[in-house]
C-alpha cells in the first residue's frame, strides 16, 4: 500500500487556529474534509521546512514553526500516511486560498464543529486536551 509522508501546520494567531477544507476528491473519506494545511515531504526535506514551503505555496502566508506537536500514522482504505504536525505562528491572518475551498479561524473549543479527515482526529484531540482551559 502506498505510504505518504506529510507535514501539517497548526497555525495559531491570537488564540485562533487555522482550519482549511479540501475540495472534492476521488476518495470520499477525504472529500470536503477539514485538515491542517501542509503537504508531502520532499526527498531530503525536513518536515518543519515542508510546512513553511507548503503554507507559502498554498496560502501565500509566512509562518514560523514554534514546536513539534504530534506525528500520526493513519491507514486509509487506499493509502497510508505518516503526518508530522507542528505548532506555528503567523503575524497576520491574511491568506489567499488556492487549493482549498474554505477556511476558518477557530477557538480550540470549536474544533469539533468541523468534519475532520480521519488522520487529523488525534491532533484535534491533543489540541483540545492541551490548549482548552
Ligand atoms: N496537508 C494535509 N494533508 C492531509 C491532512 N490529513 C490528511 O489525511 N491528509 C492527506 O495527506 C495527503 C497530503 O497530500 P497533499 O495533497 O496535501 O500534499 P501535496 O500538496 O504535497 O500534494 P499534491 O501536490 O499532490 O496536491 C492527502 O491525501 C491528504 O488527504 C492534513 O491535515 N493536512
TrEMBL record:
BP terms from Gene Ontology: DNA repair; DNA replication
Pfam families xref list: NUDIX
Key words of the record: DNA damage, DNA repair, DNA replication, Hydrolase, Magnesium, Metal-binding, Mutator protein
Every Nudix hydrolase domain range: 1-129
PROSITE patterns: NUDIX
InterPro entries in the cross-refs: MutT-like, NUDIX_hydrolase-like_dom_sf, NUDIX_hydrolase_dom
Catalytic activity: 8-oxo-dGTP + H2O = 8-oxo-dGMP + diphosphate + H(+); 8-oxo-GTP + H2O = 8-oxo-GMP + diphosphate + H(+)
Enzyme Commission number: 3.6.1.55
Cofactor(s) the protein requires to work: Mg(2+)
Domain of life from the UniProt record: Bacteria
Presence of keyword ATP-binding: no
One Gene Ontology term of the molecular function aspect: 8-oxo-7,8-dihydrodeoxyguanosine triphosphate pyrophosphatase activity
Family: Belongs to the Nudix hydrolase family.
Annotated protein name in UniProt: 8-oxo-dGTP diphosphatase
Natural source organism: Psychrobacter pasteurii
Amino acid at each position: 500500500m502506498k505510504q505518504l509522508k506529510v507535514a501539517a501546520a497548526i497555525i495559531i494567531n491570537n488564540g485562533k487556529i487555522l482550519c482549511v477544507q479540501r475540495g472534492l476528491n476521488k476518495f470520499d473519506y477525504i472529500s470536503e474534509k477539514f485538515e491542517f494545511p501542509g503537504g508531502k515531504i520532499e526527498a531530503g526535506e525536513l518536515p518543519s521546512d515542508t510546512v513553511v514551503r507548503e503554507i507559502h505555496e498554498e496560502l501565500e502566508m509566512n509562518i514560523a514553526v514554534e514546536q513539534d506537536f504530534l506525528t500520526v500514522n493513519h491507514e486509509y482504505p487506499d493509502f497510508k500516511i505518516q503526518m508530522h504536525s507542528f505548532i506555528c505562528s503567523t503575524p497576520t491572518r491574511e491568506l489567499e486560498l488556492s487549493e482549498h475551498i474554505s477556511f476558518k479561524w477557530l477557538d480550540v473549543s470549536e474544533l469539533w464543529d468541523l468534519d475532520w479527515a480521519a488522520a487529523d482526529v488525534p491532533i484535534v484531540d491533543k489540541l483540545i486536551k492541551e490548549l482548552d482551559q
